[in-house]
Amino acid sequence: MKEPTDKRSGGRKVSCIRKEYDRERLLFARDYLIRHVENPPSLSELSRLAGINEFKLKNGFKELFGQPVFAWLADFRLDTARKELMKQSRPITEIAFELGFSSPQHFSTAFKKKYGVSPRQMHRNFPGY
Q1: Is 13 helix (H, G, I), strand (E, B) or coil?
Q2: What mean pLDDT do residues 120-129 have?
Q3: pLDDT at residue 97 tops 60
Q4: Domain 73-125, what fold?
C-alpha cells in the first residue's frame, strides 16, 4: 500500500497520527489486543472499540508500531510463547491455546518459521530460565 503524501510538503510522508487523541486510541487498540490475545476482535470491531476509523487504525498502527495490526499481533503471540517456553512452567499445548492459536500444529509451524526451532526444542533448551 502506498504511503499517504502531501503535495504541500514536497511529497513527504504524512503522519496518520495528527492528534494525541489518535495516538491514545492506537495505544488502546494495542492494549486491547494484548488483553484479548486468545480471541482478538476483527479490524472493524477493534476500530469501533478504539473509537477510531479503520483507515486511521490500519495506517496509524503501522506507523506507531512498525507493522500492520495482525502482523504485530502474530509477532506478539510468538514472542510471548517463546518467553513462556523458556520458563518451562507450562505445557506447550496450553501455551498455544492461551495465545489464540487454532491448534498446536499451527502454533508449531508458525513458531519454527519465526525462530528456526520447534517449540519443543525451545522448551528443552532453556532449563530453569
Answers
A1: strand
A2: 74
A3: yes
A4: Arc Repressor Mutant, subunit A (1.10.10)
